[in-house]
UniProtKB/TrEMBL annotation:
SMART domains: AAA, ClpB_D2-small. This is Clp R domain-containing protein. PROSITE patterns: CLP_R, CLPAB_1, CLPAB_2. GO terms for cellular component: cytosol. Keywords: ATP-binding, Chaperone, Coiled coil, Nucleotide-binding, Repeat. One of its GO terms (biological process) is protein unfolding.
Length: 965
C-alpha cells in the first residue's frame, strides 16, 4: 500500500491498513471513520469480531485506550459501541464488476483504491487474516477521505514532519458533530479533555522520522511523567539544593556517561532533586525565552523526565524473558526518542533494584543492569539514579562496569536553617491540603524538635512528617468529635455498665454509691462539652460558608475587571474585605498549627515531654527533692545531685550532645542506690498514699518518664567476659543472632527517653566501661548493624559496691576520710577517662539506726497498699515499729533485712489467718510485740479458728498472748 503526497509514520500506515482489513473482515462496503477509530483503539483488529472479555490482556495498551481509561471510562464499552455502529452499516460485499473505479479527480491516498483484476483470487480464497490488499479493499467513505487532509494540517501546526497516530485521532474528533465524537460523547468521554490529553502527552517532542511514535507506550505504562506532573502543579516546590541540582545538570549535559547517581541517607531529599530537574524543564517549556526561568536548563535537556517504576516492571513476570522484554521495550523507546531528537531523562528511585532482576521470570531472569549498560556507556540513555550509601556500596559498587557509568552526587542532610526554609516553601501546599493555618513558629519548632529528638531520621523528611501529622491532627479535631468528648462518652458508657452490674449484684452498696456519684459527675461534664462542641461546629460551618462565598466573589471580581466594569469590581472588592474581616473574627487557634501541637506530636512519637512546663509541673520539679527524700532517706547528697539534673532537663538547659545526666552511685549494699534510680522514674508515686482512685494514680505516675517501665536494667556481672559485650550492641554480621539487635541499643532505639541502670558496674570487664565512653561523651553508640543510636535523651546511672567494706564511723572528720578512701578505691578500679566523663560520683553513706524509723514507715505504707485490696487496715504500734527498725537493720547489708523481716513476721502469718478465717475482709490487722520464745512480732486474731489447720506455723498466732507492751 502506497500513499503518495502524504508522509505517514510506520505506525500510522499500520493503523490505516488495519482499518481497511477490519472493514473487509466485517464485510462492509466502505471504510469509515469508525473503522479507523477502532484501529486506533485496538492493536489487533482481528479480535473485534469476538467479545472484549475474551481478549488476551495486551502487553501494552494503545494510546487511545489509555486516554479513555484515564477519564474513568471502560475502553471495552467503547469498543462495543463502535462495533455496533459498524454492524449497522451495509454489509453486502461488492462483486468484482461492482468495485468502483478510480473516481475522477481523486489523487494521492485515494488513488490506491483500484479495481481488482479478474485473475486475482476472490475474498473467499484468502487466508483467515489476509494482508491488506489494495485490489480487494472496500471504497472509502466521504468522512474518511477528509481525515488525512485534516491530519496533515494538524501535523503542520505541530511542526512535525510526519503524520502520527495522534494526528489521526485529533482529526477524528476535531469536529464535535463527527460520528466518532458523537459516539464518544454519548458514552461519558469528554471530547475537550481528550483533545487536551492528546496535546499534553506529546510535550515538546517532534515527529521527525517514520519510526517515531506520538507517545511512549512502554514508558507511559511503567513510568511516571514527572514533567507533566510539574506542569500540572502536582509536584511540591523544591527549595534549596541549588548546588546539587546544578551539578546534576552538568553531568546530564556530558557527551558520554551522562548519568548522575544521587547518594544520601533516607529522607535527605534525593527524589526532590530529580523533581526539581523536572520542574525546571517544565518552567523552561512554559517560558522558553523570558527571564532566568528560560535559562535554568540548557536546550539540550528540554525533554521529559520519567520516573521508572521498578515494581511495575517486575510485577507479573512469571514467564521466562517477560521482565527482559519489558526493560527492552522501555530502552528501545528511549533510544528511538534520542535518535529523533526527543530528550528523555529516566529517573530510577532505589537504583539498586536494577540488580534484582534475577528473581523475575521464576528465578531465571537477568539483571536489568546488564541491559542498561550499553546505552549508559554510549550516552544514549540519560539516567538519574537515587539510592542510599549502604545500598550503593552493597549493590552498585560490586559491579565495577555499572559503577563507572555513573557519576556520584552526594546529597547531604540540610542544616537546621536550610530545613526551615524548605518547610516555609512547602507551607502553602499543606495549608491548602488540610485547610489549616500554620504559624511560622510552628515550622521552626518542627525542625528544632526533629533534629533534637528524632535522631534516627534525617531532615527535612522528619520535620515534614511532623508538620504533616500536626496539620492532620487539627483537621481531624475540626471535622470529627473532639478526642476529649469522645473519651468522656466512652467513660460514661463504662460507668453505666459498672452501675448496672453493681445494681444487679447488690452486695456492695459503697461501691454502688461511688459509681453513681462518678456517673452523675461524668454526665454533667459531658453535657457541658456537648454544648461547647455544638457551638464550635456552628462556628466552623460559618467559616466554610464564608470561604465559599469569598471564592464566588473573587471569581465575579476577576470577570468584572476583565470586562472593564470598574464599579462592579470595586463593590465586589468591598464585599470581599468585609467577609475577610468576618472570617478573621471566627478563625481562632483551634484551626491553627502552633508550636504546642508540634511538641504534642513529638511526645506521641517518642514519649519525650517536649511541651512547655505547666505551672503544676514546675511546682512538682521545685518540690522534687522533698519528694525523693520521702522515698530515699539518709542520702541527702545523692538526692540533691539527681534533683539538679532533672530540674535542668525540665528547663531544657542540658547539653544537647550528651545524655541528660550520668551518675556513678557507690557505697555499701542496701543503702538505696537502686531505690533512688527507681524513684527517679516514678517519683510522684508516693502520692498514691493519699485518697486517690486507680485512674488518678496512673495519671500521677511518671512525671519525668512516660512509664515506670521506661528503664533498661543491665546487670554488669553478666558481662565479666569480653565476648559478652556483643549482647549490648548486637552481634556483627556473620555471627549468630546478628539480625536481632542488642539488648541496650534496641531498647533505646524503641524508647529514646528512658533511664539506663547499670547495676554493679565494677563486676564488668574493662571493655564494658570502654563501650560507655562514647555514650557518656557524645550521647551515641553504633550497634552491630552500623546504625547510630542516640542516648541524648537518657539518664545513665551506674551502681557499685566499691568502698562497702571500708569502716564508716559517724562524724564530720570520719565522713570526709571515708569519702576520700572510697574515691581512692574507685580511681584504682576505673580508668580516668571513664570517671572524667561522668557528671557526678555519689557516695552513699552507711545507714544509721536514726533513719531506719523513716524506712520502716515507707515499707509499712507499701504493705498497707497491698492490704487495701483486701480492705484490711494495718494496726501496728510504735513498739512494733521500733522492733522492726532494730531487727531490720544490718551494718553490713543496710536496710535489706527489713523487707525479709516484714515478710516473715507479718505477711506470712497474716496469710494463714486469712485462710483460717480468723481475720476477715474489712477488719483491722493488729500487729503487736510478743515475748514468747523471744521478742518478735505477732498478729492478734479477730475470731476463733473455724477451719482445721496443721500445727506448722501455729505458734506465730496462738503463742502471741504474752504481749510485751
Amino acid at each position: 500500500m502506497t500513499f503518495p503526497n502524504f508522509e505517514f509514520t510506520d505506525k500510522s500506515l499500520t493503523i490505516l491498513a488495519s482499518a481497511t482489513r477490519l472493514a473487509g473482515n466485517m464485510k462492509n462496503s466502505e471504510v469509515g471513520v469508525v473503522h479507523l477509530a477502532l484501529a486506533l483503539l485496538v492493536d489487533d483488529v482481528d479480535l473485534i469480531q469476538s467479545e472484549p472479555q475474551n481478549w488476551p490482556e495486551p502487553e501494552l495498551p494503545t494510546f487511545f485506550w489509555s486516554l479513555i481509561s484515564k477519564q474513568g471510562v471502560q475502553p471495552e464499552h467503547i469498543v462495543r459501541v463502535l462495533k455496533r455502529l459498524i454492524v449497522e452499516r451495509p454489509s453486502t460485499p461488492l462483486k468484482d464488476t461492482q468495485l468502483p473505479a478510480k473516481a475522477p479527480g481523486r489523487t494521492g491516498l485515494f488513488s490506491i483504491f483500484k479495481r481488482r483484476p479478474r485473475s486475482s483470487p476472490g475474498p473467499q480464497s484468502l487466508s483467515p487474516n489476509p494482508a491488506p490488499n489494495v485490489d480487494s479493499s472496500p471504497r472509502l467513505s466521504t468522512a474518511f477521505e477528509r481525515v488525512p487532509d485534516v491530519a496533515r494540517k494538524i501535523q503542520e501546526q505541530m511542526h512535525d514532519r510526519y503524520i502520527a497516530p495522534d494526528h489521526l485521532l485529533l482529526a477524528l474528533i476535531q469536529d464535535d458533530k463527527s460520528e466518532v465524537a458523537i459516539a464518544l460523547s454519548e458514552n461519558a468521554v469528554k471530547i475537550s479533555d481528550l483533545r487536551g490529553d492528546i496535546t499534553q502527552s506529546r510535550q515538546s517532542r517532534k515527529i521527525m522520522s517514520r519510526k517515531a511514535g506520538s507517545h511512549l507506550e512502554a514508558l507511559n505504562k511503567y513510568a511516571l511523567n514527572l514533567t507533566a506532573l510539574a506542569k500540572e502543579g502536582k509536584i511540591d516546590p523544591v527549595i534549596g539544593r541549588d548546588e546539587e541540582i546544578r551539578r546534576v545538570i552538568c553531568i546530564l549535559c556530558r557527551r558520554t556517561k551522562n548519568n548522575p547517581v544521587l547518594i544520601g541517607e533516607p529522607g535527605v531529599g534525593k527524589t526532590a532533586v530529580a523533581e526539581a530537574i523536572a520542574q525546571r524543564i517544565a518552567d523552561a517549556d512554559a517560558n522558553p525565552t523570558e527571564g532566568m526561568v528560560g535559562k535554568s536548563v540548557p536546550d539540550s535537556l528540554r525533554g521529559t523526565v520519567f520516573s521508572l517504576n521498578m515494581g511495575a516492571l517486575m510485577a507479573g513476570t512469571s514467564g521466562r524473558g517477560d521482565y527482559e522484554e519489558r526493560i527492552k521495550a522501555v530502552l528501545d523507546e528511549i533510544e528511538e526518542s534520542e535518535n529523533n531528537g526527543d530528550q528523555v531523562i529516566l529517573f530510577i528511585d532505589e537504583l539498586h533494584l536494577i540488580m534484582a532482576g534475577k528473581q523475575a521470570g521464576g528465578g531465571s531472569g537477568m539483571d536489568a543492569a546488564n541491559l542498561f549498560k550499553p546505552l549508559l556507556a554510549r550516552g544514549k540513555l540519560r539516567c538519574i539514579g537515587a539510592t542510599t550509601l549502604a545500598e550503593y556500596r552493597e549493590c552498585i559498587e560490586k559491579d565495577g562496569a555499572l559503577e563507572r557509568r555513573f557519576a556520584q552526587v552526594m546529597i547531604n542532610e540540610p542544616t537546621v536553617s536550610e530545613a526551615i526554609t524548605i518547610l516555609r516553601g512547602l507551607r502553602e501546599k499543606y495549608e491548602g491540603h488540610h485547610g489549616v493555618y500554620i504559624m511560622d513558629s510552628a515550622l521552626v519548632t518542627c525542625v528544632r524538635l526533629a533534629s533534637r529528638y528524632l535522631t534516627a531520621r534525617r531532615l527535612p523528611d522528619s520535620a515534614i512528617d511532623l508538620m504533616d501529622e500536626a496539620c492532620a491532627v487539627i483537621k481531624v479535631r475540626r471535622e470529627t468529635v473532639p478526642e476529649e468528648l469522645d473519651k468522656l462518652r466512652r467513660k460514661v458508657y463504662r460507668l453505666e455498665i459498672d452501675q448496672k452490674g453493681l445494681m444487679r449484684d447488690g452486695s456492695d452498696q459503697e461501691l454502688l454509691q461511688t459509681a453513681q456519684r462518678d456517673l452523675a459527675s461524668a454526665r454533667l461534664e459531658l453535657l457541658t462539652l456537648d454544648q461547647k462542641y455544638e457551638n464550635e461546629k456552628k462556628r466552623r460551618d460559618r467559616i466554610v460558608n464564608i470561604r465559599k462565598r469569598m471564592g464566588e466573589i473573587k471569581g465575579r471580581k476577576e470577570i468584572a475587571e476583565k470586562e472593564g466594569n470598574i464599579s462592579l469590581a470595586s463593590r465586589l472588592g468591598s464585599e470581599l474585605k468585609e467577609l475577610q474581616g468576618q472570617i478573621k473574627q471566627d478563625e481562632t487557634s483551634p484551626d491553627t498549627v502552633n508550636p504546642e501541637i508540634i511538641a504534642e506530636i513529638v511526645y506521641r512519637w517518642t514519649s519525650i515531654p517536649a511541651t512547655k512546663l505547666l505551672a503544676s509541673e514546675k511546682e512538682k520539679l521545685l518540690k522534687l527533692g522533698d519528694t525523693l527524700t520521702q522515698s530515699v532517706v539518709g542520702q541527702p547528697e545523692a538526692v540533691r545531685a539527681v534533683t539538679r539534673a532533672i530540674q535542668m532537663s525540665g528547663n531544657d538547659l542540658t547539653n544537647g550532645s550528651r545524655p541528660i545526666a550520668s551518675f556513678l552511685f557507690t557505697g555499701p549494699s542496701g543503702t538505696g542506690k537502686t531505690l533512688l534510680t527507681k524513684a527517679v522514674i516514678s517519683f510522684p508515686k508516693l502520692q498514691r498514699y493519699f485518697k486517690v482512685n486507680e485512674f488518678q494514680r496512673s495519671q500521677l505516675a511518671t512525671f519525668l518518664f512516660n512509664s515506670p517501665d521506661a528503664m533498661v536494667r543491665i546487670d554488669a556481672s553478666e558481662y565479666s567476659e569480653k565476648f559478652t559485650i556483643s549482647r549490648l550492641i548486637g552481634a556483627p554480621p556473620g555471627y549468630v543472632g546478628h539480625d536481632q539487635g542488642g539488648q541496650l541499643t534496641e531498647y533505646v532505639r524503641r524508647k529514646p527517653y528512658c533511664l539506663v541502670l547499670v547495676d554493679e558496674v565494677e563486676k564488668a570487664c574493662g571493655e564494658f566501661c570502654a563501650l560507655f565512653l562514647q555514650i557518656l561523651d557524645d550521647g551515641r553508640l553504633t550497634d552491630g548493624q552500623g546504625r547510630t543510636v542516640s542516648f541524648r535523651n537518657c539518664i545513665i546511672i551506674m551502681t557499685s559496691n566499691l568502698g562497702a567494706m571500708l569502716p564508716n564511723d559517724k562524724g564530720k572528720r570520719s565522713e570526709c576520710q571515708h569519702r576520700n578512701q572510697v574515691m581512692e578505691e574507685v580511681r584504682e578500679h576505673f580508668r580516668p577517662e571513664f570517671l572524667n566523663r561522668l557528671d557526678d560520683i555519689i557516695i552513699f553513706q552507711t545507714l544509721s539506726t536514726d533513719v531506719m524509723g523513716e524506712i520502716v514507715n515507707i515499707r509499712l505504707k507499701e504493705l498497707q497498699e497491698r492490704l487495701d485490696r483486701k480492705k484490711l487496715t494495718l494496726d501496728i504500734g510504735d513498739e512494733a515499729k521500733r522492733y522492726l527498725a532494730e531487727a531490720g537493720y544490718s551494718k553490713e547489708y543496710g536496710a535489706r533485712p527489713l523487707e525479709r523481716k516484714i515478710q516473715s513476721e507479718i505477711v506470712h502469718p497474716l496469710s494463714r489467718l486469712l485462710l483460717e478465717d480468723r481475720v476477715r475482709e474489712g477488719e483491722s490487722v493488729r500487729v503487736r510485740i510478743t515475748l514468747t520464745n523471744g521478742r518478735r512480732l505477732c498478729i492478734v486474731p479477730n475470731h476463733n479458728a473455724i477451719l482445721n489447720s496443721c500445727n506448722d506455723g501455729q505458734r506465730d498466732v496462738d503463742e502471741g498472748l504474752n504481749f510485751g507492751y
